[in-house]
Structure prediction request, 102 residues.
Amino acid sequence: MKELVFKDCEIYFNNKLFTGKYELFKGDKYILSISKEGEIKIQKTFKNDILLMEKKYDSCDSGIQKVYDSKGNKISEGKFIKGKRVGNWKYFIKDSIYFIKY
Prediction:
């Protein structure tokens, strides 16, 4: 069977850790992910060809996340662990940067 298998935080293809790019379509969103030796390293989410979110992983389900508005302008950036925001996050509003601690 030639399909990607997601097990815990690892991705397999033909029973081997997967290295490469893969695409997912969820409703009107397109997700492009890059993995190396079974671990997701970069994940980008698009809608109507506009980048909405970018995650750079440093380990299983943790890393840096950047969020963009529907015009592609960055609106926030910060660290996440297990899918939740942690630490100081930057919020970009007009000409200012605000910090919120999670």
